[in-house]
Amino acid sequence: MVYYNQGLDNTFSALSDPTRRAIVSKIAIGEVPIMELASPFNMSLPAVSKHVRVLENAGLLIRKKRGRVQYCRLNASPMRDATDWLIKYQQFWDTKLDALANFLEEQSK
Amino acid sequence: MVYYNQGLDNTFSALSDPTRRAIVSKIAIGEVPIMELASPFNMSLPAVSKHVRVLENAGLLIRKKRGRVQYCRLNASPMRDATDWLIKYQQFWDTKLDALANFLEEQSK
DNA sequence: GCTATACTAAACCATATGGTTTACTATAAT
DNA sequence: ATTATAGTAAACCATATGGTTTAGTATAGC
């Protein structure tokens, strides 16, 4: 009866790291070799390689090997569940804005 | 020049745990004492207390003490940034569905 | 065939995470 | 005044995480 979503665990966990979010942004543009992913970060290649693996395990990154280069591209679909989960609470973060809107509305009368 | 969003780190990290997501769901309904949060989980009270603290540090939970009971309620606003970040990639997860739609469209002609 | 490139693997390290138990504090009820 | 309730604090533990370095493998270029 205890149920939880391992997919959401992995998605949120993968995206909780700034380096990995930066990687996601990069591979959304198109296929990027791991070398190119590594270059902007002040970090060793094995470290980046590990981040790539984490994203891959979360299903957010797809690897394609051509020759000795591994190209990475985004698979955004797991983000959908994460977004769906978050969106359920949209009404709660909108409340403040609504309250502000109502306040301003009242003021202007 | 290297810049990253600590808020997103904390939000995604806090939400990567199933117990904490369950807590979020509960406190969205209304104010809930920590005791009541703990009860459905097969977990000690200190463990739940720690999860509450993590959510509080991520700005997702607000604590209000009345007597000896601490009531928790949701502050969803940090979720907004997380959702905004995710939504940027919506086009990428929609692609597959679009492709399917196009395929079906072609088939029906 | 040799060397350079683009990685992965493995060993290691420090710190973080998620849980426990045991002890304490503050409020409430009897 | 004593006891029960609702927690937090602290110490501890096992495992995970994010990084390193050093070594190895597979492909490409000369």
List the main descriptive attributes of the protein structure presented here.
Arc Repressor Mutant, subunit A; 64% helix; homodimer; DNA-binding; elongated; three-stranded antiparallel sheet; alpha+beta; 109 residues
Tell me about this structure.
Two copies of one chain form a homodimer. With 109 residues, chain A is of the alpha+beta class. Chain A has a domain at 6-77: Winged helix-like DNA-binding domain superfamily/Winged helix DNA-binding domain (Arc Repressor Mutant, subunit A), CATH 1.10.10. Chain A has six helices and three strands; from the N terminus they run H-H-E-H-H-E-E-H-H. A three-stranded antiparallel sheet of chain A has the order 1-3-2. Chain A is elongated, with a radius of gyration of 19 Å. The model of chain A has no long low-confidence stretch (mean pLDDT 89). Chain A binds chain B through residues 2, 4-5, 8-10, 12-13, 15-18, 21-22, 24, 28, 42, 74, 76-77, 79-80, 82-83, 85-87, 89-90, 92-93, 96, and chain B through 2, 4-5, 8-10, 12-13, 15-18, 21-22, 24, 28, 42, 74, 76-77, 79-80, 82-83, 85-90, 92-93, 96. Chain A binds a DNA duplex (30 and 30 nucleotides) through residues 17, 19, 33-35, 43-47, 49-51, 53-54, 67-70.
